[in-house]
Amino acid sequence: ANSDATEMALRALRAVKITLPEQRMGQYPHELSGGMRQRVMIAMALALKPQILIADEPTTALDVTVQREILDLLRDLKSEFGTAIILITHDMGVVAEMADRVLIMRHGEIVEQGSVRDIFHRPTHSYTQSLLAAVPKIGHGTRQRPLTSDQDEIVAEVRNISVKYTTGQSFWGGAHKIFHAVSDVSFQIKRGETLALVGESGCGKSTVAKALVGLTPFEGSINIGGKSFAQSTKAAAKALRKKVQIVFQDPMAALDPRMMVKALIAEPLVIHNIGTPASRQAEVLDLVLKVGLLEEHLDRYPHEFSGGQRQRICIARALALKPDLIVADEAVSALDVSVQATVLDLLTSLQKEFGIAILFISHDLAVVENICDRVAVMHHGVIVETGTR
Questions:
Q1: Domain map of the chain by residue range?
Q2: DSSP H or E run through 17
Q3: Closest C-alpha to 363, from 13, 67, 57
Q4: What pLDDT does residue 267 have?
Q5: pLDDT of residue 366
Q6: Where would I find the beta strands (DSSP E) of the chain?
Q7: What DSSP string describes 189-240?
């Protein structure tokens, strides 16, 4: 019966700690944050109490508090029902906590395997050693940067923005409701500065990012280089968007599956009529190499890459216009720790070279400590605290 199915679905959503489950039932996937969507998928997988659960990066998009809850759920499933779990992850902390045995893969081959203790305390393969060395740790930031910025130019100013959604009726009916995703949020970002926006999944971080690049309606004001999106003509708004680029959390949703990589990265250059075909080709190759991909990847399609490789394509495309501000919405969440370190170093070096400001949205506090100057903490759509890292 529909009532039984509804109650089972609500129980599954509550099990993965989704807030306001009755209200979420009436929403579409695009209305949820990346972390929320991943929790819904986990709820679907857990609902059937499987004998074998393949958990492919189950906690990648989740903040540390929700990650703990999900790992506890997986552990309970394992102990209560004897479920075997194949855990696929690049998070070495999750591996240390959850796994009995570990297999290390590189370029399609298993290069090392053993118990958790042996892998973490006595790694023999150089790749395993590099993975463990690259794990960022709070209080041990080898890439810690000075508390800058040296410049006073304000690249982006957000004043009292609010975003609200009207939730539609669910399949089983129910009244329309107003959901306040973001309420009265304000901050500034200076040239060359990195501001972290942190908080639980679903707290409104990605909604702020979408508002900042003009992808969702909002109340309040957003100024880029002293100019307002809301008060700009169509041509002026296009010029402003050139100054602000975004790297989304879900790379597959951001890439046209019908376009090759070379066309995807060149697309912003074509749209803004920058350079000749030859110069664009050279620029695209340079960007691909900078983000750790190969020249041969230019003639491939998005579906031929791993999630981490697709995210690097998105980062290369965001850098193509040499923007004043990059909004990085969980930009390194899909990357293993060694590649993550490379991409963070790349963002930092480009920031120093071009004076780019970065709004770095993340749930990984160790990464935040390593790359950011200031931190703003969001909770239930409101910034509750701002300060230096």
A1: 2-99, 191-219+238-388
A2: none
A3: 67
A4: 96
A5: 81
A6: 52-56, 84-88, 101-106, 109-115, 154-167, 177-190, 194-198, 219-224, 227-228, 244-247, 325-329, 357-361, 374-379, 382-388
A7: EETT-EEEEE--TTSSHHHHHHHHTTSS--EEEEEETTEESTT--HHHHHHH
CA 89-92-94 angle, 5° bins: 70
d(C-alpha 61, C-alpha 282), whole Å: 34
Closest CA to 376 of 362, 348, 367: 362
The CATH topology of domain 2-99 is Rossmann fold (3.40.50)
Q: What is the pLDDT of residue 173?
A: 57
Q: Write out residues in the chain with pLDDT < 70, as ranges.
A: 1, 34-35, 61, 137-151, 167-176, 231, 334
Q: Provide the token pair at 31.
A: 């209305």
Please give the CATH number for the structural domain made up of 191-219+238-388: 3.40.50.300
User: Quick check: helix, strand or coil at residue 269?
Assistant: helix
The encoded tokens of residue 362 equal 């993340």
> Closest Cα partner for 244 from 198, 292, 212?
212
Q: What is the pLDDT of residue 369?
A: 86
The token pair at 331 is 């930009």
Structure tokens at 40: 């819904």
The reply to whether 2-99 and 191-219+238-388 are identical in fold is yes
Check residue 324 and give its pLDDT. Answer: 92
Fill in the DSSP letter of residue 100: S
- Residue 171: what pLDDT? 52
The structure tokens 């972290």 sit at 196
Q: What pLDDT, on a 0 to 100 scale, did the predictor assign at position 14?
A: 86
The pLDDT of residue 25: 87
